[in-house]
Design brief:
This protein is an alpha/beta fold. Helix content is about 50%, strand content about 10%. It has a single domain, classed as Rossmann fold. The protein has 10 helices and 6 strands. It has a 6-stranded parallel beta sheet with strand order 3-4-2-1-5-6, with helices on both faces.
Length: about 220
């Protein structure tokens, strides 16, 4: 319902075939995102740092494909988008790398390859394993979290700023991004990322929340 209503509201589209939805998280509540993309008929690319979560969703049949190669992900995205094939592709890697690659594609080819975007990392708990910084691998991140939580926190906040910078560039070109109620925008704001609504007060964000704007 969230993906379909986002398409209706932001793309004015009842049919999402050929549209691309990019997000992250295939764990607990976020695991349904892959299935949702296919039910909605769009191309879903979902990033996840934890291979165990990817393999679980793939085994369940909720996730159609897995890849740790961004070149392959972009090629599959283009192919499915062109042929209007419903696809759920799990990218085994950090979502910031995925967003930055989409910015690179925009900068080098002029193509905006994503129509809808969101995030379901556990940003309500970003400094204790809910969000992993792009600067480190998953295993390196776990080790740093254990050995130096202060440094881990700093890297998470740097990563959130990069995350938002990439999303903003794509949104400025027409992608529609929303907050999934996971405190992503709140923690990004605390990290110093550019998420404030221009002309709004300090509690207003430039991107909507799915609760009020999409589900409501």
């Amino acid at each position: 319902l969230t993906v379909l209503n986002a398409g209706r509201r932001y793309l004015e589209a009842e049919d999402l075939s050929g549209k691309v939805f990019v997000t992250s998280g295939l764990g607990g509540m976020s695991g349904a995102q892959a299935k949702a993309a296919v039910i909605a008929g769009c191309v879903g690319i979902i990033a996840e740092v934890d291979e165990a979560a990817l393999l679980k969703r793939h085994k369940q049949g909720w996730l159609m494909e897995i890849s740790n190669n961004l070149d392959h992900c972009i090629a599959r995205l283009r192919e499915a988008r062109k042929n209007k094939i419903a696809l759920s592709l799990g990218y085994h890697g950090n979502v910031v790398d995925l967003w930055e690659r989409l910015v690179h594609e925009l900068d080098t080819t002029g193509e905006l390859l994503v129509d809808l975007g969101s995030d379901q990392t556990s940003c309500h708990n970003p400094f204790n394993g809910g969000y992993y910084p792009v600067q480190l691998s998953f295993e390196e991140g776990k080790q740093l979290l254990s050995s130096n939580p202060g440094k881990f926190r700093t890297l998470v906040q740097e990563s959130l700023k990069r995350h938002v910078a990439a999303v903003n560039k794509l949104a400025d070109k027409g992608m529609f991004f929303w907050d999934y109620g996971n405190a992503f925008l709140l923690e990004a704001q605390r990290a110093g990322a550019d998420v404030a609504k221009k002309g709004g007060d300090k509690t207003e964000f430039r991107y909507p929340s799915y609760v009020q704007h999409i589900m409501g």
